Amino acid sequence: MPLAVLLGVLSGCVPAGLSYRAAPRFREQASAIHTVAVLPSEIKVYQIDVGNVREEIAEWSAQARTNIVTALENELHTKLTAAVKFLDQESLAEEKDCLEETRALYSAVSAMIQIHTYPNPNYPSHPFEDKQKNFDYSLGQEVESLALGADVLLLLDAEDHVWTAGRQALQALGVILGIGASVATRVVVIPRLGGGTSIRAALVDSGTGDILWINSVGAGAGKDLRDRASASEMVNELFKDFPMSYDRQPKEEEPR
After folding, report:
1. C-alpha span between 114 and 106 (Å, rounded)
2. Which tens digits make up the pLDDT trace of 105-127?
3. Greater confidence, 244 or 51?
């Protein structure tokens, strides 16, 4: 399931004050986490036109990736005292197949988490009370080979959509027509085109593959990951309620 769709499922159904999902043992295990390995992030910025056709712009994706990685570094330093190492494709060259399989499984499991732990009458969902109370999802022990000795893995992916002038004009027309119709019906219905900004992250136990924590945030057309401040705001929102912090002094960060 695409990340944008998952964020659509998530919107409107998150309990007030709690958007993330976490394993019951997460807080207890927190003090034992000394090293976090951040897997290569999937960050893509698309241009989307009036016909919903989207095209990734490599230069935009690269800028967004730089902004998000910088914001992520800053955010993790405020939440963790564990050493953080950012892995790249070269360092995981021998694990390329495992990395691709893990990403595919992560996407599928994330979809199940949304369906079974975030009830939403506006989208297909089959909430399981047990899954909500006892969050228990895993990517399998195979992820250990990706950690390169780290205690946990951090997976992060993001999508952004930059509207063409034609799409912006279509949305503006929809607003005008919606307001006009409300005069006669007294009901304001403003059509909103899809294609916003979304970020998702998960912390995974490298030994068991268990998902310890996962969260997603989304925004409409008002955010732009190509902008440093905008990317920082999104990452800050993603980790706003992160249920883990220490009083110990942080270890020296390992070079990327």
Report:
1. 12
2. 999 999 888 888 876 655 555 65
3. 51
Closest by Cα among 106, 108, 110 to 146: 106
Residue ranges of domains in the chain: 3-238
CA 227/CA 99 separation, integer angstroms: 29
Q: Are 119 and 13 in contact (CB under 8 A)?
A: yes
Q: List Cα–Cα distances, 46 to 68, 225, 233, in angstroms.
A: 16, 11, 20
Query: Could you tell me which of 21, 57, 95, 15 has the C-alpha nearest to residue 225?
Result: 57
Alpha-carbon gap, residue 84 to 8, rounded angstroms: 31
Q: How far apart are CA 101 and CA 48, in angstroms?
A: 28
Instruction: Say what the pLDDT of residue 166 is.
Output: 54
Which SS3 state, helix, strand or coil, does residue 104 take? helix
Write down the pLDDT at residue 16: 34
Q: Six-digit token pair at 27?
A: 């807080």
In terms of Cα–Cα distance, which of 203, 87, 205, 88 is closest to 140? 205
Q: Do 21 and 212 form a contact (C-beta atoms < 8 A)?
A: no
Distance CA 202, CA 158 (A): 12
**Whole-Å CA distances, 234 to 39, 239, 247:** 19, 9, 25
User: Which one-letter DSSP state was computed for residue 95?
Assistant: G
Q: Which of 5, 6, 33, 8 is nearest to 210 (CA)?
A: 33
Q: Which helix (H) or strand (E) holds 4?
A: helix 3-10
What's the whole-model pTM score?
Answer: 0.76
The residue ranking higher by pLDDT, 171 or 244, is 244
CB–CB of 3/159 below 8 Å?
yes
